[in-house]
Each structure stands twice: as structure tokens, then as C-alpha cells.
Amino acid sequence: MGRLPDNILADLKRDRLVREGHWAYSTGRHSAGLLDRDHLTTDPVAVGHMSYAIAKRFFVDHVDSVASPSIQGAGLALWIAHFLDPKARVVPADRTSAGPAVPPGLDDLVRGKRVLLVDDLIAMGDLMRPLAHSVEASGGEVIGIATLWNIGDPGIGRHPVFGLLNTAYEAFPADLCPLCAAGAPAATTTGY
């Protein structure tokens, strides 16, 4: 459940939205995959397919609202909310000095609700952590955290992170990287 279908992964590779190799990320993790998130989030077909796969993972969790800390994540949240049944509402976060937060005018979409947090990419969790806190402080229940790809820790606080591309390309701590252990060429450093 929630696995990226092989035909969609093949399309992403064909369109160079996902590339294979040996990559090193700012988080210190390595992976055999690289997501071109800038171009991916401009492709409605790719985003639609991936959003459906994320929504499928959370179909039985009775999501009331989908909240996101970023503009790229808000677009993804809209698609995911559309694919959920019943349809969920979308809560784009406000920027505050404490980080992304539930906007005061939308707190009714969080209070007493089951909320899925979504972003396009999670590296350090520095956007998701304050949003999760804001949702909980507003009376909402965070029922999951989802992303196209998680290149950071497997959880944020007490919440595991579901990374859709992680089903195909796991991100390993550098000292546990199977590519390094197999003697692959040195990892190419990425921009994120």
C-alpha cells in the first residue's frame, strides 16, 4: 500500500525527473536516486500520479485536512486531498517567526480534525516540525507525515515519515550506504 507503481517510476526516469546514480545529500545521507523536485512539481501528470499513490497510502486513515508548510507542498496537498475519500480540506501554512503555522482564519479546518502533513521533499524536518506543533496546538491530530521523498531521518518527533520514492530509493546514512560498501564511484553532491 502506498508504493510507487513501476510504470510511474519508469515515466519519471524517462522524463529525467528521477535519475539514478550515487548521490550525497545535505542531510549526510546517500541514495541511488535523485529527484528533480523543481521540474517534477511543474508537471501536473507526474504530480497527479504521485499524489494518488500518497493518497492511496492514507485512504483508510480518515483524513479531514491536509496541511503543508511550503508552496510546492501546498500544490501536492491539493491533489492528495482531491484523491482522498471523503475529500479532505487543504491548509496552506502561514510563515511565522516560529516557522510554518496554521493560519488563524483556517484553524477550524484543524481543530478536532485528523490532519495529514505533506511536503514535496523532507530533508531536515525544519518546516514540518513547527507545522506539526502548530496543528497540535490548534487542537488537531497529526495522523501522518507524507512526502514525495524523505532524505532525512525516518521520523519527525513521534511521527514516521512516509516517503513515496523511498519505496524505490532508500536514503542511507553515509556509513551504511550499500553503494559505498560495494565500491561504487564517489557520491555526487546534490543541491539539497
How would you portray this structure in words?
This protein is of the alpha/beta class and 192 residues long. It has one domain: Rossmann fold, CATH 3.40.50.2020. Helices cover 28% and strands 30% of the residues. The protein is built from six helices and twelve strands. The chain has helices spanning 6-14, 37-40, 44-57, 71-83, 128-137, 178-181; strands at residues 18-24, 29-35, 65-68, 89-92, 94-96, 99-101, 114-122, 141-150, 155-156, 159-163, 172-173, 188-189. Strands 4-3-7-8-10-9 form a six-stranded mixed sheet, sandwiched between helices. The chain has a four-stranded mixed sheet with strand order 11-2-1-12. α4 (71-83) links the parallel β3 (65-68) and β4. It starts with 5 loop residues before the first helix and ends with a strand. The model has no long low-confidence stretch (mean pLDDT 94).
Key terms:
single chain, 192 residues, alpha/beta, Rossmann fold, 6-stranded mixed sheet, 6 helices
Going across the biggest sheet, name each strand in turn: 4-3-7-8-10-9
The top level CATH class name: Alpha Beta
Question: What is CATH's topology name?
Answer: Rossmann fold
The count of strands amounts to 12
Query: What CATH architecture label applies?
Result: 3-Layer(aba) Sandwich
Low-confidence stretches: none
Shape: globular
Order of helices and strands: HEEHHEHEEEEHEEEEHE
Structural class by sheet pairing and helices: alpha/beta
State the major sheet: 6 strands, mixed
Radius of gyration, in angstroms, nearest whole number: 16 Å
* Mean of residue pLDDT values: 94
What number of structural domains do the residues give? 1
Quickly count the helices: 6
Q: Report how far apart the termini are.
A: 28 Å
| Fraction of helical residues | 25-40%
Strand content: 25-35%
